[in-house]
Predict the 3D structure of the following.
Amino acid sequence: MSVDLENHAALKKLRAFDPDAVEDVQAFRGELTLFIRSTKLRRAAEFLRDDPELSFDFLADLTAVDHYPNEPRFEAVYHLLSIKTAQRLRLKVRLPGDDPRVESMLPVWPAANAYEREVFDLFGIQFENHPFLRRILLPEDWEGHPLRKDYPVQGNITRWP
Amino acid sequence: MALSSDTLFLLGVAVVKVVVVLLVLLTAIAYIVWLERKLVAHIQSRWGPYRVGPYGLMQPMADGLKFLFKEDIVPLEVDRFVYWLAPFLSFTLAMLTFAVIPFGGSFKLFGHEIYLQIADLNVGLLYIFAVTSLGVYSIALAGWSSNSKYPLFGGLRSSAQMISYELSLGLAVVGTLMISGSLSLRDIVNSQTGTWHLAGTNTFLPHWNIFVQPVGFIVYFIAAIAETNRIPFDLPEGETELVGGYHTEYSSFKFAMFFMAEYANMVTVSCIATLLFFGGWHGPVFGPAWLHVLLPVFWFALKVFCFLFFYIWTRGTLPRFRYDQLMAFGWKFLLPVALLNILATSFVVAWIGT
Amino acid sequence: MAVTLEKIPGQEERVILSMGPQHPSTHGVLRLVLELDGETVIRSLFDIGYLHTGFEKSFEDKTYSQGITLTDRMDYLAPLSNNLAYCLAIEKLLELEIPPKAQWARVLLTELTRVGSHLVWLGTHAIDIGAMSMFLYCFREREEILRIFEMVSGQRMMTSYFRVGGLALEPPLGWLDRVKKIVDRFPERVDEYEALLTKNPIWLRRTQGVGTISAEDAIAVGLSGPSLRGSGVDWDLRKKQPYSSYDKFNFNVPTRPEGDVYARYLVRVAEIRESLKIVRQAMEGMPEGPIKANAPHIVLPDRESMKTSIEALIYHFKIVTEGFHPPVGEVYQAIESPRGELGIYMVSDGSPKPFRCHVRAPSFANLQGLAKMMEGRLIADAVACIGSIDVVLGEIDR
Amino acid sequence: MVPVFYIFAALTIIAALSVILQRTPVYSALSLIVVLCSLAVLYVSLGAKFLAVIQVIVYAGAIMVLFVLVIMLLNAGRERHTEGSRLARWLGVPLLAAFLVEILSVIWNGLSSGAVAPPAPDAGPAAVGALLFRHYVLPFEVTSILILVAILGAVVLAKKQL
Amino acid sequence: MVPLSHYIALSAILFVIGAAGFIFRRNIITVFMCIELMLNAVNLAFMAFSRFRGNLDGQLFVFFVIVVAAAEAAVGLALIISLYRSRDTLAIDELDSMKL
């Protein structure tokens, strides 16, 4: 269940491609997590998708984690899957709490469309250049982002007029 | 103008005939609904209605009462007059067709020959086509006046569908008309008396048109299913696509009128199929004189029932066509086949005639 | 929610049709906004969230074990698949070893779930295309599967039968006989469905060449499960990334290259047969042994020992009142649910409640393929496409 | 027979007036259908059952359906009131009135006295058909070509791109 | 038996109503329907004459008129649809230029 951090193909190749891209690396229960700098995300994503050996062409999941009150508060989490090699990879981007924004991965993986809308809806993370960044699950006029940790579980108390 | 007792008598007979036919028809429609629910239920391994009365036989009455007393919801912004007109038109037209349908032979009463038919027009079949061709309006207008998108789609679809299939419907029966040489339904049935004689021997096959016009019959029946908007051609209603089609916005008794009209049209179509292709009321007749009058009516009803059964059976079995496929099927397959059938029949008729 | 399609400037006025959320063939409360030219769909948008209940937020307020009951309610047609994914994720976090009998029972039950879910899909898909009898046939058969669930868990739909570390209860005696009956009778029934549909000319016309999506597009928009295999991609997590000892079973992964509605139909019908094969193997090879892992601080003790041993009683009290503490970390566990890749992303901060639990719902991703499939098709085809990707709104909206 | 004529003549005129006075096109179309159907009844009173049925099938059942369909398709609403052509107003009305007066006066003077109805000719389908296919076969064929051309024209015109 | 003149008078009245509608109505579809009205007025005259002359030629003319009306409706309505597509109006006052 342990990961050979030094010889992992994706890590090695990505480091060779752009030494700055990978901020940090974690391995837990056989799963590799790469922390990518938000400025480098688009380039790294395209590399991981297009590299013939890696070919992480399937964006399995995209979500976020809120580490309130710690900073950087948000992590955008991308679960990649390669249909060819049956490998999984997790990318993470750390985002600040005051203005969380990250580039949209829509041009790289069209599947990101609905996921990014969902993350925007529930976490309030802005995805730049997303063509239709609107609330998806909640009503348009909803206030707040429910999956943030400072949002109470039972919801905001509504005062009836 | 003084009315003679004869005229009065005939007038009375006509009124009695109209009343009897209407009553029988309305009851029949109610029980066709019951039959359909029961049969489809058994096809789908369910019970169907069984609570109201024995075998659910009172279910049609319960349904009728329910329709009568339900709140009649009229959506805002509908075109009130047309919205009201459409179901009535639909129901009236469906009932009007029965004026010329003969359902038995004749009998003598007080020295008068009384035919089991309301009116024997010499253009009876054309009359039916004329009345059914007006049926498009009820659906198109219902769709338009509801001022809603799904009914509008349903209305447009069904107008196109009914116009297209009316052609095939009309052309399919031309073959039988050529053989019997009349447009009067009574004459057409009478031309199918007896059995076929092939090369001098009696084949004991009844002298029905189906044996010489099988293609015409098949085209007729397919087109007829489409005309009555039943599965697999029920696109105007197409509840999984258009919610309810043209009657989406209708409720209560107005909806019931559409509903009854649909079943009345089914009966009409089955009656015509029986009359044109299956020898109408002809069948084995025996026994006393009163049986000679009643048995033909029974045979007629039996044949009509077979067609209705077929209708219900297809409903339980087949999926639905798509709109463009339906049009393509009507224009590219059914219409040419009907035309070829006419061509072939006319050659044969001309050849035998010489 | 309440999305509208903006008018493309410079284009003539088109009809905008709002399909759903109360529409007979949108399978729940899916709303589609269709831009039509005549009856042809030019553009489409999906509008979801009518069933949003905030499960992901609720997970954070419940202990790990309490969360299981929530998972039932996501994909309400395949509750046991959801249970399995959730439990597997936690077990991966805990590095728990599950005894073989529990594994086999899990496989058996999830495959039955798959069959049941596919039956509902087949029935509703057929009724969308107008074949109404199929619906009732499928529900009749599904009933037998639900009876098995009721037998083992006491519930027909909201089973919550799998627990962290194994099963909730010892399955009752004779349950395998009931399973055997189903397995023996079902192939025949599937033949019956196929007799009604597979070669029916109207069915073929309505499904063949409709809603086509290529393998590349399917992967790009994130389709998974039968929808992806219908496009010719041989991808099944049970084979490619085996979990819960699926590698010990022998089965095929049906795929079809066409990528249309008919292909997806064939794949699912073939999957019913394959699942029945797995169920038979699991039933015949069901090992003996415990149904729970040997981890007293995580798994509830059985009633007997709880009442006789003080140690078990203490553990029981601890687990029920407080829960267990998994190590800090995060895992992503995906399984092949009837609809595709069902992933649970679980982040633990060491407390007895998940710090974050995200569900990768297969229908949510599959929904993105819909726009591609419906483009340029008729409304009737749109209905067939919705049916063919088998959406469950409970899971999409979560 | 006599009351039938007057009832339906009155109905025809009322419906015809309704055709030109209704502001909503659908109502105009419905009124026109009433005109057509009551004319069919008048045909029956003239002994032409076949033509009456043809009138209903073709005119009311097909041509007017096209009208209604187009009105639905274009969603034609109420007509806006416009000034209209001045020429039509100043020339058309007097001319129409003069025309009506002229015809009525001619009828009054010339026709009302004479014109005794001969026995009704057999106007069944067989008789009409025989005449059509023997005596008028050339016009019949020409109309069929006309129809064909009309179909092609309609398709060419209504199709967005060929 | 109703005298011939009554039929002809009815026909004339219908024709004038149709012509009046043709002149005064602004909606192109209604104008079209007025033409149909005039055609039917003529048809009635044909039928009446046929009956009172005792031969069927008049009926045959009615038959042909109906056929021509069908052809005319098909082409005319197709024209209306294509006009509506390009001009977005049904008022004949606004359809006054030759180019589409």
